Amino acid sequence: MHSIPFSSIQEGGSAPTPTSFPQSFDERPSKAKVPAVNISSSVSVPSREPLVLKNKAPRWHEQLQCWCLNFKGRVTVASVKNFQLAAAVDPSHNIPAAVQETTILQFGKIGKDIFTMDYCYPLSAFQAFAICLSSFDTKPACE
């Protein structure tokens, strides 16, 4: 399995994690081949569907007369690089609306060349950082 399963956001759901590692960092590597650990076979996961993330839609702010995302004070500078991601959920999965609207990753500007990144399970820090880095490549440099 090379993706986060959709079941990780369901109530009582979990993401597969290895129960043991084939080699300790303290041991010297041997020339013998170590069999690969098949994570998906060691953990029972009810759904094999990957978790798909979507951009949260901005809401119209009547006083400011513009489209805004609520970063709850964590992002302070308007930027084309600011974004929030939530799970893209199929209505057939019967996921509560509160869970569907949960922000899994948010990234935004807080100063000149200074950004903030907030993430939560099921993303790892590495995955969240990689997603945020990709926003620098796809959006215009001018603001």
Automatic annotation (TrEMBL):
Domain of life: Eukaryota
Biased composition (Polar residues): 1-23
Domain spans labelled Tubby C-terminal: 2-138
Gene3D superfamilies: Tubby Protein, Chain A
Signal peptide per UniProt: none
Protein name in UniProt: Tubby-like F-box protein
Residue ranges of the region described as Disordered: 1-29
Family assignment from sequence similarity: Belongs to the TUB family.
Organism: Solanum tuberosum (Potato)
